[in-house]
Design goal:
The complex is a heterodimer of chains A (159) and B (256). Chain A is an alpha+beta fold. Chain A is built from 3 helices and 8 strands; from the N terminus they run ααβββαβββββ. Chain A has an 8-stranded antiparallel β-barrel with strand order 1-2-3-4-5-6-7-8. In chain A, strand 1 and strand 2 form a beta hairpin. The longest helix of chain A has 16 residues. Chain A starts with a helix and ends with a strand. Chain B is mainly beta and 256 residues long. The radius of gyration of chain B is 22 Å and the shape is elongated. In chain B, 41% of the residues are buried. The longest helix of chain B is centred in the N-terminal third of the chain and has 14 residues. The chains are: A alpha+beta (159), B mainly beta (256).
Chain lengths: 159, 256
C-alpha cells in the first residue's frame, strides 16, 4: 500500500464527509454579487405570451451570507422593486433577506419582515443554473384559474 | 476537525489491509414507495374532473450509480465505504399541456459495507444514511418551470433515512488488476425518521396554507388543510431492486 493509495482512500472519505451540511454549503455557494444582464417580464393571455417588457443591464444584486438562515441580507441598485416582490409585499420600505432551499438549490426566496404587523412576506423564485456562472431566477404569477399570467426573469452573472 | 478524526480512524485499517479496491458503475432498477403511490392515487382522483390527460404513475424505473472503495483486511473479507445515488421521475400531464413533475432523488453519502469475495462471486451487505429529496415542480404549457407559490404542491421536499442493502455479483471479466462485475441488489429504507418536508418558510401551512409534505390523501387535505393529520404525509419508506455493472480496480493483484 503506497502513498498514492492512501491519498485516494482519504479523498474518498473526505468527499463523503463533505456531502453533509448542505444548508450552510448552499448559502455560501449562493452568496455574492450578481450582475443583472437582463430583466424581463412576459405577460400571458390564454397561456401564450402577449407582451414582453425588457431592461438590459438594470444593475446588480448582492446576496450577503450572514451565517444563519434565513437572515441573510440582500442589497441591490435596481431602478424599481421587482414585480414578484411587489405582488408578495416584499421589499419597498422593508429590508429584504434571502435564503435557498436546503437540498438542491432549485429555489431562492426573498422575504421581508414587517415589524408593525409582525407578518413576514415571501417571494419564491425558481433557479436555473446555466454555464459560466450564469443563472436565471424566475417568478411565475398565476391567475385565479391557475394559468400563468406573467413570468418575471432575472438573467444574472455572478461576479 | 471531524473529517480529520474520521479519516484517522480508518488509517490503521488501511495500513494493514490485504487489498484495496476502487469500484463504481451505473445501476438501473425498479423503485417503489407505496406512500407516494397512495398520494398519486388520491392526486389523480382529486384531479379526475380537471382535465388530466396522463395520470400520475408510481415512480418505477430508476437510474443511478454506486461508487466506493473496499479494503480487504483478510483475504476475501473486508469493509467498504462508498456513496450511492439514484433518481426516478413521475409526471402527470393535463389537457392544456401543463405538467406536474415529481422527481425523487436518493443519495447516500455514507454507506458502509462488508464485502465478501470468493472465487468470482461477491456478496456485499451495506448500511448507511440516505438523503431523500422530492423535486415537485409545475411545467406550464410554454415550458416555463416553476417551484414557486403559484401552485400548491411546488417545492423541494426533503428528508433522510437509514438504508440497508445487499448485493450479489459475479466477475464476468477478470484481468490482473481490473475486473468487471455484474450483479443485482436490494436496497431499502425503513422510513422511520420523518416524512418529506418542504422546509421553505414561505410555503408554510400556518402562514399561507401550503402543505408541508405530500399528503397521503390529497382530497382530504384540500377539503380541510388545517385539520389534516400532520403525520399523514409521504415518507421515505421504499425499496429498489436494481441491476448494476461495476468496474473494480484492485491495487493488489490476486497473485500478490
Amino acid at each position: 500500500m503506497n502513498r498514492s493509495h492512501i491519498f485516494i482512500f482519504l479523498s474518498v472519505v473526505l468527499l463523503a464527509a463533505s456531502s453533509c451540511n448542505k444548508e450552510s454549503g448552499n448559502r455560501r455557494k449562493y452568496s455574492g454579487v450578481y450582475k443583472i444582464e437582463k430583466y424581463e417580464i412576459s405577460y400571458y393571455s390564454n397561456n401564450k405570451v402577449d407582451s414582453v417588457f425588457t431592461l438590459d443591464n438594470p444593475g446588480t444584486i448582492g446576496l450577503y451570507d450572514n451565517g444563519l438562515n434565513p437572515y441573510n441580507n440582500e442589497r441591490d441598485d435596481l431602478p424599481g422593486v421587482p414585480r414578484g416582490w411587489v405582488d408578495n409585499a416584499v421589499g419597498g420600505v422593508l429590508p429584504v433577506g434571502w435564503y435557498t432551499d436546503e437540498a438542491k438549490r432549485q429555489t431562492i426566496t426573498f422575504f421581508s419582515e414587517d415589524p408593525g404587523s409582525g407578518q413576514t412576506y415571501y417571494a419564491i423564485y425558481t433557479v436555473d443554473k446555466k454555464i459560466a456562472h450564469r443563472y436565471t431566477w424566475t417568478y411565475v404569477g398565476a391567475n385565479s384559474n391557475g394559468d400563468i399570467s406573467y413570468k418575471e426573469v432575472f438573467y444574472l452573472k455572478k461576479q | 476537525m471531524k473529517k480529520i478524526i474520521f479519516a484517522l480512524l480508518f488509517f490503521p485499517s488501511l495500513c494493514f489491509s490485504q487489498g484495496f479496491v476502487l469500484y463504481g458503475g451505473p445501476l438501473y432498477g425498479n423503485y417503489s414507495n407505496k406512500y407516494f403511490n397512495q398520494f398519486a392515487e388520491s392526486y389523480n382522483n382529486y384531479n379526475a374532473g380537471s382535465g388530466v390527460k396522463t395520470p400520475l404513475k408510481p415512480w418505477g424505473s430508476a437510474l443511478g450509480y454506486d461508487i466506493g472503495a473496499a479494503f480487504y483486511l483478510v483475504k476475501g473479507v473486508g469493509f467498504s465505504l462508498g456513496f450511492l445515488g439514484y433518481s426516478a421521475h413521475s409526471v402527470a400531464e393535463f389537457n392544456d399541456g401543463g405538467k406536474r413533475h415529481f422527481k425523487n432523488s436518493v443519495f447516500s453519502p455514507f454507506i458502509f459495507g462488508i464485502p465478501i469475495h470468493f472465487w468470482r462471486i461477491s456478496i456485499h451487505p451495506k448500511m448507511g444514511l440516505a438523503n431523500c429529496v422530492i423535486d415537485s415542480y409545475y411545467e406550464y404549457p410554454d415550458g416555463t418551470i416553476s417551484y414557486g407559490k403559484d401552485k400548491l404542491l411546488n417545492g423541494v421536499y426533503k428528508t433522510f433515512d437509514f438504508c440497508g442493502e445487499i448485493t450479489f455479483s459475479v466477475d464476468v471479466i477478470t484481468l490482473e488488476h481490473l475486473k468487471l462485475e455484474v450483479g443485482v441488489s436490494a436496497f431499502g429504507m425503513p422510513g422511520k425518521v420523518e416524512t418529506y418536508d418542504d422546509g421553505d418558510w414561505g410555503r408554510n401551512l400556518d402562514i399561507n396554507g401550503y402543505p408541508e409534505g405530500l399528503p397521503l390523501d390529497y382530497g382530504a387535505w384540500n377539503s380541510d388543510p388545517f385539520s389534516y393529520d400532520v403525520t399523514a404525509y409521504v415518507h421515505p419508506r421504499s425499496k429498489i431492486y436494481y441491476a448494476f455493472v461495476n468496474l473494480r480496480y484492485h491495487f493488489k493483484s490476486d497473485d500478490e
